[in-house]
Amino acid sequence: MQVKKAFLMAALLVFQVEIRCSLAAETDITLKLHLDFDEDFSGGRVIDASGNGNDGWQMDSTNWITATSGVFGSIAAQFTYVGFISNDPPHVYPLSQYIAVTNLNGFAFLTNATISLWAKFDSNSDVDMQLLDSGYNVEYEPQAVNSWSLGRDGYSPPYLFLCFTVYPVWGGGYQILYWPQDVDSIKYATSNFHLYSATIDCPGNQAIAYYDGQPYMTNTIGLPWLRTYGCGSQPWLCIGAFSHDGTPQWGDDAYPNAGFFVGRMDDVRIYNRTLSAADVQALYQGSTYAQNLAIQRAASQSVQVRWDANSNAVYQVEYRSNLAETAWSPLQSAIPGSVTNSVIDSILGQRSRFYRVRVLP
Fold it and tell me: Under CATH, which number does the domain 2-26+289-359 receive?
């Protein structure tokens, strides 16, 4: 009995260590902004799932994004035209919503970066539509040097292509990356979500555009670093419109006033590292992980793996015996979230076991 008791105590200790490793293994400290839209944002706040506190805020009191179906059975943000804006006479622009990220913890200045999001465009006629914008022409605002934006550039061909634009010290906007022209030539809309990713390596002077997880274009950068500018009085990131050197607060100046996005947006991410091609492919394939993973002993020789499930998603529980292994093995078959959110696994004869739960595409 003493030997058996000692074995069980040892197994329990290994199991306790294993729980900590299992939960920590999927934490990427280089992910500085992650708006997954899976939490309730109807109150005007989009939680930053990275844990860095870089939440998105409603600054326009008259309208706000709404919840819609996301990429992997999750929730996405719906941006919708609600009228027109004329606060910059004589210009009149169609008005939608925008999100203001005013805390820039970990991505205000970047020498290496990855910027990625899913988007589906609704019908529109705007060749200047923006997804993310933190930049401005330094000819008008010198403080905006090395800022950037991701969207269409209606002033330079090819007009309907998404491009990643930087604003160098010599002035103007320099389009360093393009993505395929995937919108309808009449409605400017896409029929499906697409993943637009850009990896930035300023020390290596290389930028890569990825389209649906695959490399599409490589170019030089010519900048020592990137910055999130926003405006002279407050650095901020505008999601869904041009910031135009304006404050995030609605109505205290003429901007944002143009480039309003209409469509769905999901899984907005900013890393302070250059993701590998395999990392970007994993984002496209849905190699994200279930939230609030919990592992607890179910019996003397078994454990329960439990997670928060979405009824529209499908999950695959995977395991490996030690962290040195390069491959994960499936535990049972894939599980629809509408069926269950937990599995029981035997640890009989196992010295250690590590778990993760992937969300399948």
Answer: 2.60.40.10
